[in-house]
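Progress against Task 2.4 (sequence-to-structure conversion) is shown through the following example record, which the project officer requested during the mid-term review.
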Amino acid sequence: MINRTGLGIACALGAAALYGLVPNFTRGAFVNGVPSMESTLFRTYVIAIIFAMVAVVQGKRFAIPRAAWPSFAGQSLATIFVSIGYLVSVQFIPVGLAVIIFYLFPVLVMLAAPLVEGRNPGLPRILISIVAFAGLAIVIGPSFDSLDIRGILLAALAAIGAALQFFSGRAISRYLTPSVFGSLVHIAILPPMLAIALYTGGGTIQIFPGGTATSAGLAFMAGLGAVYVFGYMGQMLSLRFAPASTVAPFYNLEPVVTTGIAAAFLGERLQANQYAGGGLVLAALVASSLIGRWKR
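Structure tokens generated for the chain above:
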């Protein structure tokens, strides 16, 4: 197992900054005629092809060792959860709210890491988790009747998937390089993603000629594909160089980027309780980062 903590953190920060663009590009594509599920399908196809080309140039073999199959299955399932949950949630709720819910995942990673290692999580971790979930309750509670439950549940599903993605990504990197397993994972999830896109679209794909997608929508979708490729590579490299519990807190940069861009370019403004609850979630994430540093 490779342990180069500084390089892992640098990759995490770069990936977080790029990932911060993803929901905004998805929202921009959606308001310009591209269904969120089709944006998700497009980015899955792009990364599968590009990573396969990188692996071929590197001379890598597309073979999954028997010992890697459990982590490969976990990574595939987690990627489906994140891809569908996070990106499609912005079709039902504001980008800023989706990112607050989704960004419970570093707390989930922090809480689960000791359990995976067979140790008690400890009182500080439990208290931080309580603060994070209290913040989420403040965000959602007063506005629950006016929010679309589908968006809330999808963002929550994505948070669970992201936590699983970190642990399975660290595990599978023992056997395969990011270009190989990144390509194979996205090839594996292409059929279900296509089936879901066709089902939600009534049997049609709107990005094809004659569909609802405009040139602006297609441009946003293309941008989404590009930033996702580099963001995912950065994330998997960060997990190759350092443990999940070490790098996960540094992805706190992503919600700052996401909400800032949503406010500046999409004109989104959250309610007072959502800012207050989001502040609690962010405080919990910062505390989780500090605990991670103290434990090392």
